[in-house]
Design goal:
The protein has 312 residues and is mainly beta. The protein contains 4 helices and 20 strands. The chain has a 12-stranded antiparallel β-barrel. It is globular.
Length: 312
């Protein structure tokens, strides 16, 4: 890994096309023209990510993009926490064609290249809501090699995200791992959006703590309710909209990647920081939603939170 001080410094017109997509180059060029100065950029290659730093006389802007090799590991991408000071951008596409009409399939793509990553689908003939995540669009079998994780509704407003392990009440070997929980609150009659909380394992040495509870005392929920919960889990909540007295409606400010109104749109923030979002999810077209993820979330966790929103 290169340090920031040892990055190669290049002129804007010298950036190879492999280091910046046309969309990113257009953005850099716009910044260059608006500042009326020569644009100097710095580039860093770290594993599967390329970051392009744009610096002008007036401002310094960081744009995080993913550039993937021909063969990449989507599972590694999905289960790795987003690095600090980095934002990963994904697009979720709702598919209701054919057999997906009653139980839509949601496809997960990288926004920049629209590279397919995985899919999620609600399973039929279940006593409660049960979503399965798969590396293949047409294969949703829990014990298949393509299966990634499962989202289960354990109570009227409580969802758990697990890996593909076994329920300890049914089978005691290969116990499932808890990846997070989503807890919805009461509904505001004047606003269709529900308040909700998200709890995920604490990050230690760049990796999340492991929860494979054989009983409730070892679960994420129990850790969250303990006095030392900050050492064990991380707590987030959605940012609720503010009431605009002039327009007589509730409003929430999103980035330009969210272009359409939807009650599914949300901003997830840390309990101690309401200014910077950790996850932004919002509609950008019919059946299409953009998802922006920051540290410390894993993409699979963020995708699961979106699925719980659709299940309401």
């Amino acid at each position: 890994m290169q340090s920031l001080s040892n990055l190669d410094i290049v002129r804007f017109d010298e950036i190879p096309s492999s280091f910046a997509s046309p969309r990113l180059r257009d953005k850099i060029e716009t910044i260059h023209k608006s500042n009326k100065s020569k644009c100097i950029t710095e580039r860093e290659v770290q594993n599967e990510r390329v970051e392009v730093y744009v610096q002008t006389l007036r401002e310094s802007i960081t744009v995080a993009q993913i550039v993937l090799p021909k063969c990449f590991d989507p599972k590694k991408l999905l289960f790795s926490p987003v690095q600090q000071q980095t934002q990963l951008q994904f697009t979720v596409i709702k598919n209701t064609d054919g057999m997906n009409y009653f139980y839509p399939r949601y496809d997960f793509h990288l926004s920049q290249s629209m590279e397919y990553v995985c899919s999620c689908k609600k399973m039929s003939f279940q006593t409660s809501s049960y979503y399965l995540f798969s590396l293949k669009r047409d294969q949703f079998v829990r014990k298949a090699s393509t299966s990634l994780a499962k989202l289960k509704k354990q109570a009227p407003k409580l969802y758990y995200l697990y890996d593909t392990g076994n329920n300890p009440e049914k089978k005691f070997d290969d116990i499932r791992q808890e990846l997070g929980l989503i807890l919805f609150g009461p509904t505001n009659p004047q606003d269709p959006r529900q308040s909700f909380q998200v709890v995920i394992p604490q990050i230690c040495n760049s990796q999340p703590l492991t929860y494979r509870p054989a009983n409730k005392a070892d679960s994420i929920m129990h850790a969250f309710k303990s006095l030392e919960y900050r050492e064990k889990v991380i707590h987030f909540m959605n940012k609720m909209p503010a009431f605009n007295s002039k327009k007589k409606l509730y409003q929430l400010n999103f980035s330009p990647r969210v272009t359409q109104k939807s009650k599914k749109n949300f901003l997830l923030v840390h309990q101690d920081s309401f200014n910077d979002f950790s996850i932004q999810f919002g509609k950008c077209n019919k059946g299409t939603y953009n998802l922006d993820i920051c540290y410390p979330f894993q993409p699979i966790q963020a995708f699961a939170i979106c699925m719980a929103q659709f299940d309401l």
